[in-house]
User: Which sequence fits this backbone?
């Protein structure tokens, strides 16, 4: 039983087709069939049921699928850790960032990494914190930035900067006339029960925060529409459809140009914390530790430049 045969089995199991798997692996279908047959001979039982629509797993195949996925992940982790035990950082480091931070911080991290650690290859993924959390749990990223991450036994969380959230409302006269909003100078949590809100779906960190605070005040937030895209949401708010809740730093251009207005909250609890997060391990690879230091250093530089205006830095973040 070889790793190549296991990998071939996995691709067939996921594509549910020998022909599709052969295309993905760029091998002849006959060669792929032989690999799977070797496994079936080794275990003494069929792994697939062949039919006109492709293949499906037998009971033995289902067991092998679950165990082999973990096996290959363990081998990848071993290779990743061993390659990292060198005097010079080298190898692939998979990072993830949220859309609110990635467009500004990621270029700074990449530029510094190219200069300081040319043997490190970065792979960037971008999504909301709940999706990034799934990637971490699945072992698909090595280090991440997340807003308000949920604690867990398998991850380490180091707060980086706490930033206040604002009620973002339309600012142009035409949009304000359409919205007919009675906007306060400072927003209370109770105001969220009457103002028309456009919020991301749960479990987005902002939606979870708003619902928890509203529940604590025995009110229901007035969610008019749901949108997971801040780019789309800001456009919807700009034309006067409703309001949203987000950080001011991410929409500084729209606010400065008079397309959106940022209204502060009275409660300091309307804030989110950007954290450095990575799997809990006794020894992170040298490459991951080096990239972690770069992320923290560039985030501090971003804070000094005024990007997180009003944000509170957490200087105790370990490098």
Assistant:
């Amino acid at each position: 039983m070889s790793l190549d045969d296991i990998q071939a089995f996995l691709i067939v199991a996921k594509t549910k087709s020998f022909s599709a798997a052969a295309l993905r692996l760029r091998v002849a279908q006959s060669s792929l069939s032989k690999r799977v047959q070797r496994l079936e001979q080794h275990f003494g039982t069929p792994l697939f049921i062949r039919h006109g629509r492709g293949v499906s797993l037998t009971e033995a195949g289902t067991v092998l699928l679950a165990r082999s996925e973990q096996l290959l992940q363990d081998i990848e982790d071993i290779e990743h850790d061993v390659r990292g035990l060198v005097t010079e950082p080298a190898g692939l480091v998979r990072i993830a960032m949220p859309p609110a931070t990635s467009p500004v911080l990621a270029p700074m991290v990449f530029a510094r990494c190219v200069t300081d650690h040319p043997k490190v290859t970065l792979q960037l993924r971008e999504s909301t914190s709940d999706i990034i959390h799934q990637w971490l749990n699945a072992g698909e990223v090595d280090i991440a930035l997340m807003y308000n991450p949920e604690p867990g036994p398998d991850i380490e969380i180091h707060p980086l900067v706490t930033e206040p959230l604002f009620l973002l409302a339309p600012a142009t006269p035409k949009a304000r006339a359409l919205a007919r909003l009675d906007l306060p100078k400072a927003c209370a949590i109770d105001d969220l029960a009457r103002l028309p809100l456009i919020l991301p779906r749960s479990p987005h960190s902002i939606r979870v925060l708003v619902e928890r605070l509203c529940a604590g005040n025995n009110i229901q937030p007035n969610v008019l529409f749901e949108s997971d895209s801040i780019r789309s949401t800001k456009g919807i708010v700009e034309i006067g459809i409703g309001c949203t809740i987000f950080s001011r730093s991410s929409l500084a251009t729209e606010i400065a140009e008079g397309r959106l207005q940022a209204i502060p909250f009275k409660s300091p609890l309307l804030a989110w914390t950007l954290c450095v997060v990575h799997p809990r391990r006794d020894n992170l690879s040298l490459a991951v530790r080096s990239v972690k230091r770069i992320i923290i250093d560039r985030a501090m530089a971003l804070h000094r430049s005024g990007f997180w205006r009003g944000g509170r830095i957490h200087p105790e973040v370990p490098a």
The CA atoms of residues 249 and 308 lie 6 Å apart. The domain at 3-84 is CATH 1.10.10.10 (Arc Repressor Mutant, subunit A).
